[in-house]
Each structure stands twice: as C-alpha cells, then as structure tokens.
Amino acid sequence: MDSLSLLIDGFGTALTPQNLLFAAIGVVLGTAIGVLPGIGPAMAVALLLPVTYGLEPTAAFIMFAGIYYGGMFGGSTTSILLNTPGESASVVTAMEGYPMAKRGRGPQALAAAAIGNFVGGLIGTVALVLLAPAVASLAVNIGAPDYFAVMVLAFIAVTSVLGRSRVRGFASLLIGLTIGLVGLDQLTGQARLTFGSLHLADGIDVVIVAVGLFAVGESLWVAAHLRRTLDKPIPVGRPWLAGSDLRRTWRPWLRGPVIGFPFGAIPAGGAEIPTFLSYVTEKRFSRRKDEWGKGAIEGVAGPESTASASAAGTLVTMLTLGLPTTAVAAVMLAAFQQYGIQPGPLLFERESALVWALIASLFIGLVLLLVINLPMAPVWAKLLRIPRPYLYAGILFFASVGAYAVGGEVIDLLLLFAIGVLGFAMRRYGLPVLPAVIGVILGPAAELQMRRALQLSDGSLVGLVNSPMAVTVYVIVAAILAWPLLRRLVKRPSGDEPKDPAGV
After folding, report:
1. CA torsion angle for 154, 160, 164, 169 (degrees, to 10)?
2. What's a Pfam family in this record (predicted)?
C-alpha cells in the first residue's frame, strides 16, 4: 500500500498541466527522431538529452519518459515500413512487419506494434511498481564486494550477449573503461590520461560520449554507405485492426511481458534475446504457420510487447542498483548524473518524489503514445522521405549544439567528433557500441567499489569474494564465460563424423 500511495502522489505531480505538456512534447519529439531511418530509441534519447538542460529534474525526467516510449514507437515504424531497424530489439519486428507492409498491411502492422508497445509497457511498468521498492530495500544491505561483483556481471553479460564475437565485445568494453579513466582519481586526486590538459581534469562528460558514439558515429557510418538511389517508402494508411486481427494478437500481447520483463530486470543486456524468444514462441503457437516469413501479425505483436516490457524491466536494475544494461538505460543514467543524482538503493529514499513522478510519467507516456502517435502514423511515415544527406547533416548539427551546451567549451566539440570518429571505427570493425558506453558509466563506480573492498581487507584479494552474494555472482560470471566452451565440447562428438569424400 505504501508503494500505491507514493505512486498516487507521483501521478499528482506528473498530471499537472505543465508536466503533461512536457510529456506530450517528449512523445512527439521522441517519435519524430526515432522514426527516422537508422535512429533507434537510444540515439533519440542521446540526441535530445541536452534539450532538457534548462528544466528542473522532475520535468526533465517526465519529458524523458515521453522521449523513451516515443523513440521505441519510432524504431518499430522504420522496421515495418523500411526494413531498417533503429536498434537490435526491432530486428525481429522487421522479419514479419516489412512483409506485411509490402502486402499492403502496413497499417495493421503499425497498429499491432503500437498496441503491443502499450500493453507490454503497461504490464511491465506495473511490475516495476511492485518490484522496484522491494529490490531497493534488499540492495541497501549490499556491500562493496557485492556491488563490484554485480558490476562485473553486468560487464560480462553485456559484452557476451552483444556483437558478433566476445573479443569484439570485450574490446569495446576496454575502450569505454579507458575513457572512464580520464580525469582525476576519485581517491588520490592524481591526474590520469589528461595529457596535461586542465579541461580533461573533470573527465569526459557521459553525454558527450553517448552522443558521440551513437549520433555522430551512426551519422558518419550511414554517410559512408549512402546509396545514390534509395527505395521509396511504402505508403501508409490509417492504422487499424479488424476483429480477426485482434483475435490473433491479444494473446501475443499478453505473453510478451511474461518473456520480456524478467530478461530486462536481470543484468543480461537488453531485449534482443527475449524478442527472439517471443518470435519463436508465437510461431510455435500459431495455427497459420504458412504465413510466417510472409507477414504474420503475431510476429509483430509479440516481439513489440516483449521489447516494451523488457524496457520497463531494465529500469528496475537501473533505478535500484544503478546498473544500465541497455543503451537507452545508459543514456538515462547519464541524465540522472547530469543532475547530480545517483541511481541506487538509496534513490527511493533520497529522491522519492522524483522517482515516483518518473514512474507515474511512464504510464502517462504510454497513454499519450497511443493517443497521439497512432493516428499520426501517416505523418511520421512522410518523415521517411527526407533525403538522408540532409537528415544526417541535421543530426550532426543538433549533436554539436547539444555537446557545446554541456560546458560551453570548444574542446567539448573536439571531443564529440573525436569520439564520433571512434564510434565510426567501431562500427567499421564490428565492435558493439553499448559495452563502451557501459564501461564509461560503470567503470569509475566499479573501480571505487573494488578499492573500497580491498581497503576493508587490507589489500587481500579475498576481500572481493568474502560474502555469499559475491561468490554466487562470480559463479554466474564463470558459467557465462564457460558456456560457449562447454557447448562446443557437447557438440563435438556429432561434429567429428567423417565427411563424405564426394561432398563439397
């Protein structure tokens, strides 16, 4: 009941006319940015992060809730209409959504995705309300060794799940950890990797890193691969669902949160795995298996609901433990830090009004998303016709303005484009971006917790594993690292069969 009363107070804050306006602006801006080709929710939030600088924290995070869900809706729109997923979680949506659009059922695909986002987000946010305070109360008793172990788990899980190889994932993480070292040592005050520059003494702002890697790096990558002739967008009518479509989609909408929320709540790296599991599950339960691959509406409804619920689950880990396991959560953690607020076990005590207003605004953002964006889908589709050279030139301009607004220093612009070139190189060589952002944000905190644990044990490494929770987490880490090797050993007997000499 205490959580319910706090949530009601949060609605009282979020439903003021001014905050409702900020939520509506966030939904529209998030959708407008997220619907553009190659731009997902993470890039939309990173690009719009500097827009909230002038706002007080509560209004800023209410606006972020709208940007968050608006960006997710926009990502599914490009997946369905252009076969261009804005993020990895939208890849599964494109598998059935784009064939639906080519068959003239784009409106139905967009409606199934929008309602799936609403249902999954609604159920996931309810679970967030029920679980987050309990997780936070348990996390208060976690010590420095436990925190360091959980952060190591986040590092390992994210780098193992994402990218084409673990080596690339760990290389990306190392890049992020190195950037996170720039500045003065938190305990000794010793300058590290500043190269004698006073501008780098405070470190590199996380906002600059996020905008550089996501917005600038993606823009340079797309600019380098622009084709002279682009496919024309598929025309879109007004989204609607017939009775037969509703009968096929309501079960996937409800099954999605059951799969998505648990995966989001554990530090395991985003919605890629649960959306694929949802796709496989819906295909297994479907009675029309002949439609799969040609535009089965269940293949849109289930993964979209799953992705939205997974996003809500991610906020549990981010708010209660301060661990971002997706790109969007990493950028939102950067938003907290720009206001001097550190998510973690004490957040629900120290910033109770802000947290519950944010959670209430998630509900409001979902409703606004459905009310505002579903009828406006044809308008957003027209944005897809913007020539991409103009589009990415505009993105670079707004990214530059946002980076300059961080500190008003020219060096911030130089750092932005240097990190943007780094982001381009990472894409060129197949390095995932998310581990680098996670490394920048969590690296300093993990170092601090490790040094505290070692101080408590007089420098003995045993101090890192002197609690049952830490030992359990390290066992999970070892299992994650050893799983590919074990799987290879299990499969080896079947792989050692002699090949047919006549075979190719």
Report:
1. 50
2. TctA
CA dihedral 112, 118, 122, 123 (to 10 degrees): 10
Distances (CA, A) of 285 to 97, 278, 288, 292: 18, 11, 9, 12
Cα separation of the two ends of the chain: 67
Taking only the tens place, the pLDDT of each residue in 268-282 is 555 666 777 788 788
The angle formed by the CA atoms of residues 397, 64 and 424, to the nearest 5 degrees, is 40
Residues in CB range of 161: below 8 A, 6 or more apart: 268, 269, 270, 272, 273
| Structure token digits, residue 207 | 């906002």
Enumerate residues 6+ apart whose C-beta is below 8 A from 101: 80, 81, 109, 234, 236
Whether the Cβ atoms of residue 332 and residue 42 lie closer than 8 Å to each other: no
pTM of the model: 0.68
Count Cβ atoms within 10 A of the Cβ of residue 108 and give its class: 0-12 exposed, 13-18 middle, 19 or more buried: buried
3-state secondary structure of 190: coil
Q: Is the dihedral of CA 242, 243, 249, 254 positive or negative?
A: positive
Q: Tell me the C-alpha distance between 355 and 368, whole Å.
A: 20
Pairing label, strands 183-184, 191-192: antiparallel
Cα angle value 81/84/90 (rounded, 5°) = 95
* Residue found under tokens 């990493």: 330
Read off the tokens for 13.
Answer: 């804050």
Amino acid identity for residue 21 in this structure: L
Mean pLDDT of 19-27: 87
Closest CA to 342 of 449, 188, 456, 260: 449
CB 420 within 8 A of CB 204: no
Cβ atoms < 10 Å from Cβ of 114? 22
| Tens of pLDDT, residues 428-476 | 888 877 788 778 877 887 888 888 888 888 878 887 888 888 888 888 8
